[in-house]
Each structure stands twice: as structure tokens, then as C-alpha cells.
Amino acid sequence: MKRILISGYYGFDNLGDEAIIGSMIKMIKTMYEDIEITVLSNKARQTSSRYGVESIYRYDIFKIMSAMKRSDLFISGGGSLLQDVTSMKTVPYYLGVIFLAQIFNLRTIFFAQGVGPLKSKFNRFLVSKILNNMDYISVRDKDSKNLLEKIGLKSDIINITDDPVYGLYNESDKVKEFEQEEIKKIGVSVRSWNNNNYIKSIVNFLNKLNLEKNFSVEILTFHKGEDIIISNRLKKMLKMEAEVVDYTDDFSKIK
Fold it and tell me: Before 78, cis peptide (omega within 30)?
């Protein structure tokens, strides 16, 4: 039996990241029948119950080391784990787990991640040092690849791939055809980022489009307790009917 250990931003009630790990588990189980998956999570019991895998509290260093001893492969990702905008603790944590996996001689994969911003020179040095020893690196956009090249990684070892969420549904899943003239409602999801000036562009676009087509807006909150304030701000700025809808407990679609 093969054993895989996965690290990421899981167990934080963020629907986007939960969709990522749900998709990754689905893809891995489709590829391998005899597989054991363990996920590092902030809410280990919840993650284990939700996806039918083993899970370890992400800061339980002794259980993590024990899992690494019996694992064959370590995956870091997806998401945007290596950035120092939201917290200076983020980069050292994720790189530390990767480095620990390398100490245990695990094959290590940097999987479908977005990288940056990396404002700290020391963080850039750490990222370059650790990632240069990865067995495989893939990012989900060209800007991430450019940043990794800029801080010292060779271009030929960096692969660009799709975000794991795109693997959540099979090609046979029914998809309703989109026809602009039949727009009745638009879903929008926003989050607080830097000075939040980008919100003005969204407001201008929706208000301008609404002059041509009369529709309502659902503002979807995907991260419990984190994006409600910015969502309500967007609602007040729109010149149309808008409702803030809490999606943070709707995990039924990602299993």
C-alpha cells in the first residue's frame, strides 16, 4: 500500500481550500486503488470525517513525524501557501513541513500552487533553498512561475498546471449552457486583500452591465468570519438588488 501525506490550508472553514483538497483526494483515489491518504488539518476530526481519510492536527509535530516515517510521498498544495501578505508565519510553516519531509527522505511534490507576494528577502531565500530540492514543482499561473525563476529556480523544473478545483467534476457532469441574454442573477465572491481598491472595479463593471441587463447579485462568502465585512461593503456600493449569502457550511458539492 502506498501512503501519501498532504499539507495545505485545510480545516479553516474556507470553501475554496476545501474544494481543493476534496478534488485532490478524488483524483488520487481515482488513480490508485490501494492508497492511504493523510491530511494535515486545523480540524483533523472534521477533515477525516468529511473526506474519509486519515487526518492529523497541523501543529502536532510528533504525529506528523510519525506519519512521515511511514509515508512514501509528501504533497504541499494546492492554494497560495507561500505568501507573506496575510502573515509572516505562513511561509516558515509550510516550508518547515516540506523541509521535515525532505529530512525523512520522502519524495516531495509542490502541487498546483500560486506563489507570492513574497516581500521579505529572507522568505525569498528560504523558498528558493527549499523548493530547489523538491522532486516535482507545479504552479497554477505564469506569474507564480516568473516569481520562482526570479528568486533562483530554474525555468525547466517549474511546470504550469490547472488549479486542482477543475478536477472536482467529471466531463460527463451536466453543465447548463450560459446565455448572456438570460442572465437573472450573478454570483460574486470577494475577500479582503491589501487596500481593497479592486472592489471599485467590480462595482463599476456590475453597475455598467446592469444598465444593459437587469439582474440581481448574490455575494457569496466562502471563508467563515473572514469575508463578511468586505461582502457587505460591496453590497452597499452596488446600484442593484444584492444579497450576501453564507456558503461557508455548504460542503456537499466537494465530496
Answer: yes
Query: How many C-beta atoms lie closer than 10 Å to residue 255's C-beta?
Result: 12
pTM score over 0.70: yes
**Bridge partners (DSSP) listed for residue 129:** none
Judged by DSSP in three states, 23 sits in helix
Asked if residue 92 has a cis previous peptide bond (ω within 30° of 0), the answer is no
C-alpha dist (Å) from residue 209 to 176, 186, 200, 201, 230 = 21, 11, 14, 12, 21
Instruction: Count CA within 13 A, CB hemisphere, residue 187.
Output: 6
Distance CA 82, CA 231 (A): 25
For position 169, what pLDDT does the model report? 65
Residue reference for cell 522568505:
123
Q: What's the confidence (pLDDT) of residue 249?
A: 65
pLDDT value at position 185?
Answer: 86
**CA pair distance 107, 113, nearest whole angstrom:** 17
The terminus-to-terminus CA distance of the chain in angstroms comes to 23
Q: Which secondary structure element, helix H or strand E, spans residue 216, and what is its range?
A: strand 216-221
- pLDDT for the residue 182: 66
- Grid coordinates given for 87: 502573515
> Which residues are paired to 137 by β-bridges?
110, 158
Q: Kindly tell me the number of DSSP H helices and DSSP E strands found in the chain.
A: 8, 10
Residue 238 neighbours by CB under 8 Å, 6+ apart: 203, 206, 207, 217
Cell of residue 58, nine digits: 497541523
Those residues of the chain that have pLDDT short of 70 are 169-182, 249-255
Amino acid at 30: T
Check residue 188 and give its pLDDT. 93
Q: How many angstroms separate the CA atoms of 100 and 107, rounded?
A: 11
* pLDDT on residue 151: 97
